[in-house]
Every structure is written in C-alpha cells, then in structure tokens.
Queue: 2 jobs
Job 1
Amino acid sequence: MENTVNIKDYLLKEQQAGQDIDANLISLIEDVSAACKEIHTAINHGALYGVLGSAESENIQGETQKKLDVMSNEMFIRHTEKSGTLAGMASEEEEDVYSIPPQYKKGPYLMYFDPLDGSSNIDVNITVGSIFSIVRCPEGVTDPKLADYLIPGTEQICAGFCLYGPSTLMIITTGNGVQGFTLDPGSNEFKLTHKNMMIPEDTAEFAVNMSNQRFWEKPVQRYVQECIDGVTGARDKNFNMRWVASMVGEVYRILTRGGIFMYPFDTKDPAKAGKLRLMYEANPMSFIVEQAGGLSSTGRERIMELKPKEIHQRVPVILGSTNEVKRVDSYHQ
Ligand code: AHM
Ligand code: MG
C-alpha cells in the first residue's frame, strides 16, 4: 500500500508543524481508535458474535438500548479510562457524567461520545458509527462535576467519528482541516486515505426524515418544498434526496460530495427541541463540517456557539454545503 501514514504518524507530523497537539491528546486519540477497532470487529461479526438485537434496557433518553449500544459504551470506557489523559467523560449511554475510577491517573481532557450512533440500523446491517468530542477540562478542576462539562463547541480541540460501513473509516479534526483514515484489515491500522476533505459550497442533494414534515416549522417546510419542486419551482434545479438514518453516514456523504443534512426543530414531542444531542452529536459534527468548509446551524444560531445547559441536551441540526445552510438560515430570519 502506497500511503502508510497512520493516525499517530499524522498527529506527530502536525505536532512538529507547530499545531497545538500534546502527547496526551495523541495517546487519547489512539485509545479511541483502539475502541473503534474493537467495535468494528463486533459489528463485522454481527450475529456470529451474538451482538445483534435489544439489550432489554433503556438509556437516559428513554430509548431501548441495543446490545451493541451497551457493548460499544463499555469498549469506549475500557480503552480510555486508564489512559491518564482524561479528567472525565460523558456518554449518550450514561445518565450521569463518568468519573475516572480512583485507581487510575487523571489527565487534562474531557471527552463526550456517542459510542454507537444510528443504532436503529444495526439489526438491518446498514452503516452505523461512533462520534467523539474532546475539550480541555476547566483550569484547576481535578474532579469535574456536571457543570464543568457544559462547555460550548467552539472550545473543542478535537472531534471525530468512526464510520462502520462497507469500509471502516476514522474522520478526525484537530482544528487544522479534516482527515480521513481507512482501516486496513491487513495491518489493523487506520491509514490516511482522505486528506483535507472539503465540502463543496453548492449541492443538489438534501437529507431529512420526510415522515416528520408536518411537524416542521415554516422555514424548513419552505426549503424542502422548493427542493422537491425542482426545475418547476423557485430553485430552478432538480434535487436528489437521501436518508441513511445514521448521522455518521450522512455527514460522511456530505464530506465526500456535498449536501445538506437536517434534523430540524419539530413539534412532534414538545419536550424535545430536536432529536440530536448537542454535546456528543451536534458539536463534534459541526466542528468537522466547519473545518471542511461547510456550515452548521440550528436555523437561528451557529451550533458551536450554543451555551450548553445539560449534558443530554437536544438541538435542531442543519449542516453541510455553505450556500444551502445559509439559505435555510435566511428563511428563519
Ligand atoms: P441514536 O444516537 O439513538 O442512534 O439517534 C441518532 C440518529 C442519527 O444518527 C440519525 O440522523 C437519526 O437518529 C435518525 O433518526 P430517525 O430514525 O428519526 O430518522
Ligand atoms: Mg446518536
């Protein structure tokens, strides 16, 4: 294989080039990628490993957990808690923030993660992924409590996701562009295959769950209707639509060929401002999308500037190709 740069080599090069990446961060990202390799193996073996189906438990959001949700969460924790790089972590699958057990050394970072995103796709063998976001633990805090985790997305120093699809890919940003690494089954290493991924400014492809249409606000109704009207409507061009039901799959497609992804505000459940969670879904994906030249917004505000109120907070998400996100924002004004 011609390109043999793995994640560690890439990060060391960035460090030498003057990027603010310390040894703790490199070690943490390596531990996350080790967890993702283990999750990849479990997903890959599927029914052979008996990992499909429900765990017959619920998470804090009242969602039924899949066996793989629970296993992936354990794998993330097991691979990272002893690294000495984390002061604490928060997971979609954990009600409270997760304190580093007292027998392990603590480090300077906090990590938020969704160990298995798109888990409704597991049993039907469609792409799923893991998402993570890393920030610095507030100065002087050694035993972070919930309030210490409520840090806006603009403070992220690293975000990434692993996509378990036809190939397994790790997408990472440390604030200097977006790089994609493909898991090489021969060496079991992630190799740099997609350098400086950039999202085209324009697109003719949108992704939204159309079954929620009647619950959307007027600006989103208008935008989607104009896409559907195609050359016969205000946009004067035809649009294509995709819905993978796995945000990692949608964001990867957008990084590859552009597009707009929306899980907008809806009135389906008045208790929820949107479906996706700010800290471990919307923020990391927004950081990646912005680093690839795209935009990410709630329709009214830049997602990364939101001041978090709780760890499992939900937000509307509209992200992707710049000119389309700007258009949806303008319809909200
Ligand atoms: P999850 O974290 O419980 O898997 O939910 C998040 C997922 C996203 O990946 C995806 O965009 C969305 O939920 C799909 O929702 P829906 O089933 O309503 O289409
Ligand atoms: Mg999720």
Job 2
Amino acid sequence: MISEKLQKAREFEQEQLSKISPEERPSFHVTGSTGWINDPNGFSYYNGEYHLFYQYHPYSNEWGPMHWGHLSSKDMLAWKRLPVVMAPEESYDNFGCFSGSALELSDGRHLLMYTGVGYVGDTPMANGELPTHQTQCMAVGDGVNYEKYENNPVITGDDIPEGGSKVDFRDPKIWKEDDGYFYAVISNMTDDGNSRILLYRSPEPLMMLLRSLRSGVLDHSDAKLGKMWECPDFYEVDGKHVLVVSPMAMLPEGLKFHVGHSVIYLTGTYDKETHKFVREDVQPLDSGIDFYAPQSMQTPDGRRVMIAWMQAWPNSKFVPDGAKYFGQMTVPREINYRNGRLIQQPVREIENYRGELVQHHNVEISEETALDGIKGRVLDMTVKLKVTDDFSKFAIKLAADDTYSSYITYDPAKEVLNIDRSRSGYLYDILHTRDIQVKPVDGEVTLRILMDKFSVEIFINDGSQTATMVLFTPQEADQITFAAEGKAEISIDKYNLVF
Ligand code: FRU
C-alpha cells in the first residue's frame, strides 16, 4: 500500500523531472530527481542491479523532512531514476526517514534498515523545537516498492547501552559476516557529548527485526576526533579492518582533518570472536572541500565500492540562485588498502565511457601553456609531474575562460598541493581552497583528475589521497592550461568521457 504522503512525493517528483534538462545535470554523477539530497543510503546490489537511495527533500533545495529517493544501475555510472520509496509519516519517523543501508534477504526481498526520527512529545524544548527520538527501523521491498515493517521500530532507545542518547542514535549500516550472522554498526552520542559506534548482531535479519540483539562499543570519539560521529561504515579490505565515520565538530591537525563535518577512516585489527576493534591509525578520507557521509558495498565480483555525498554541511546552505536541484554524489570509488592507506579509484566501469586518448609525454612547462586536445569539462585526465628543484610552483588551470578559473597547484618545497575554486561561479564568500600535504612518490606527483560538468575529483598518487570539489562554473569555460614558475616536466594521458 502506497501512503498518501508517498504518493504525493512521487507525483511531485514526476512533475518536476521534466523541468530539469540533461544539460543542467552532471553527465555521470548522481543527482536527486528534484529538490535537495544529502547522504547516499542503501547502496547495494539487488536483483542483478546496483541500487542507490538518498536522503531526499523533494519539495525544496533545502534540507527538510527526509524521504528516501531511489535509483538503479547496471554499472554504477548510468543510473535509472526510480520513484521515491519512503516518506516520513509514521509516529516513529514523522520527523524524517534518516540514513541507513540495505541488503538482499535470503527470500529474495530487499531490506532497508534506516533511522526513524519521531516526535516524542508536544512541549517545545528551550530552542523552540519539539523533542524527537531516533530509533532503527526496517522496510522490505522488491526493488521499486517498499513497505515499512509492521513492528517498527526494531531497535529503540531501550536497546542502547548505558550512557547513550536516545536523541542521537542513527545511521545503521547492516552487513552479513562470514560467520553467518548479520551485524549493524550504529552511531550514538554519549552523555558527555562525545560519540561511539555501537555494534549489533543477530543470527538473521528477521531476528534483528525481533530485537534479538547483542551490542557492544566498537570505537568512540574520546573527546579527540570530533563530537557526533555520523554514518559509520565498517569493513575488511585487503586484510585490514576499516571503520569510516563522518565526525561533526572535529578540530584540524596540521593540514589534516578540516574543521567539522569531515570524514575519517580508522584502521586497525578486529577480533571476530570478541568483536573488539583495536584502532591503529586515523586518516582523512578525502582532503578536498565537498565530501561527506560515504557508504560502501561489496560488488558481486568482490570489490569494495564507496560513494559519498559530494557536498558537506558547512557549504550546503549556499545554493546557487536559480538552481533546480541541489546536491550530487561522488563517482563510486573502488577501495583498496596498501602501504597503510586506503586507495581510492573511480570504478573501472568508467573506462567503458572513454573516448579517444590524447597524450603529451615529457613536456616542459614554464609560462602558461595550452596543449593540443586538452580541454573540456567531462574527462578523465592523468597528469604526472616530475618533482625537481627546477620549479617553485606548478599550476593546472581548468574550467577556465576569461571570467572563470579553478586551480590545482603544487609547491615542491613545501610538498603542498592546493585546490582553489574561488572563481568557479560561486557568488558566496565561503571556503573555496584547501592545502593538502602531498609527498612525491618515486620523484613524481600523479594527479588523476576526473571532471564532470559540476565537479572535480582528484585521485592523488594512485588514489592514496583524494580531493573533491564541486564547481558551478558555466560549461563554456572549458579551457585547461599548465604553467610553472621555473621549468616543470609533465606527462599527460587524457580521455574525454562520453555518456
Ligand atoms: C549526515 C546526516 C545523518 C542523518 C542524515 C539526515 O549527513 O546528518 O547523520 O541520518 O544526515 O538527513
């Protein structure tokens, strides 16, 4: 049964869809059907296709009562829009259907596990808002239509270990382990204002529906790594265990971990018998400007693939005038672990969309230079820069014309890569630049630059670091040039991407 609220949202998004032309959307990055989107949700493989849901407020370009929007794809790059699947309407989710995850049940149905945020009283709090609680809920469906489970919520405040908040208890990520059990990590604020990641398990998801849970604390922010940790993800890749969280209100350390709403990954060891995670290292997951709330899944061929909201809360209030929708996802990225770092690369399926290869090898760059065949806004370009004392600064200018430009520069003495989109069409004086410590590898810095109409994703040194930023530069600004103070040597391999 489709509820009235869901039906209204479906009709509304259908009506709006035709008002946004393909030219106004990215070529291969996911956007919402209309209105506002934030976190990717329920990223999973079901019935022969990838499914992606998203935090969705169809009725405006601002965050509002959360619905779940939906798409499916055969290759994670060409997506088919599907109707919105959940609206906030039940007593346990009337404030919003917050983030969550998905998996296929053994009976062939698709399970969504999400946070229901429901009002719990009608006396306003000091800030004028009505009090809410967050609980974990389920919906089950066939890849198009989903029904919320009749015994929702399945995990409530009563299932939180002592010292945790019922107000901030969200973003379940569910998966199946080799031991046959189903597990979920869930974020929870503690009474002292920090947060922790709780681990729940159950012999089968239906048991989880029946609240048969055992919980433990996987890790905690400990007054050091920000306050509330949002959107946990936990997996093993290349023999290493990784916990990914999106901390609010985190302080930077040197050039790492920009202020608040950044994403970190904690690597360590995990004992599958005792469920103890021992953290060994913490690193930023992306060092750019627009990246938050990533979620990963395992593909049928065994790859760990992650997708994130290509935006973050601090800049999300600055919606360009006249925008018909707001928010994009990153390209889905394959994740590996090598030499103590997570390695990110665009999913290999992107190679199917490559046009002709343009190469310029061992080119000496000093004053600003345009190179034959190197321009455009939808492309996959790798630039290898030899790091020597012969230059003091190297710059790539892109999405450029006489009015607009964005820069990627490298300072070999400081070993700092800078991204700067101050002249990318934003009419707001917000954060537009960031410095990233980047050490050369074998005397080179390698930048794989993946551009779409409204974004740049840089995979640095084989993807061991990344920097993501959104652009609002008009598409006519498609020039790319290279310049150096001194003499720099570069090699370029560039493909247009054709969708
Ligand atoms: C992260 C987040 C989640 C929450 C959702 C609400 O961006 O705040 O913690 O579930 O967004 O839209």
